[in-house]
């Protein structure tokens, strides 16, 4: 994993941990969805070009964002 990507994930996780309002949650959710869409498009291109190493790298990144999405869902559920 590249350093910049891991920093981005850490920042998103920090924002999520600090989010107190519905608006803040929606903003984070929007960012994550946009990133997932971009990665999804990129993984499709990688598979079309038979670049399986690139596809594997992108799928790993998608897993990180999927984990963030799960945290968002859990945070939305009132306890």
TrEMBL record:
Domain (Co-chaperone HscB C-terminal oligomerisation) ranges: 1-73
Record GO cellular component, one term: mitochondrion
Gene Ontology biological process terms, A to Z: [2Fe-2S] cluster assembly; protein complex oligomerization
Entries under Gene3D superfamilies matching the protein: HscB, C-terminal domain
GO MF: ATPase activator activity; protein-folding chaperone binding
Listed InterPro entries: HscB, HscB_C_sf, HscB_oligo_C
Subcellular location: Cytoplasm; Mitochondrion
Source superkingdom: Eukaryota
Protein keywords: Chaperone, Cytoplasm, Mitochondrion
Pfam name, any one: HSCB_C
Family membership: Belongs to the HscB family.
Protein known as: Iron-sulfur cluster co-chaperone protein HscB isoform X7
Taxonomic placement: Eukaryota, Metazoa, Chordata, Craniata, Vertebrata
């Amino acid at each position: 994993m590249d350093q910049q990507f891991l920093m981005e994930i850490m920042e998103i996780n920090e924002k999520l941990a600090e989010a107190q309002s519905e608006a803040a949650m929606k903003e984070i959710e929007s960012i994550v969805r946009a990133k997932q869409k971009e990665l999804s498009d990129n993984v499709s291109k990688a598979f079309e070009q038979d670049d399986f190493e690139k596809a594997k790298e992108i799928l790993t990144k998608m897993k990180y964002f999927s984990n963030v999405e799960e945290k968002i869902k859990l945070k939305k559920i009132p306890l």
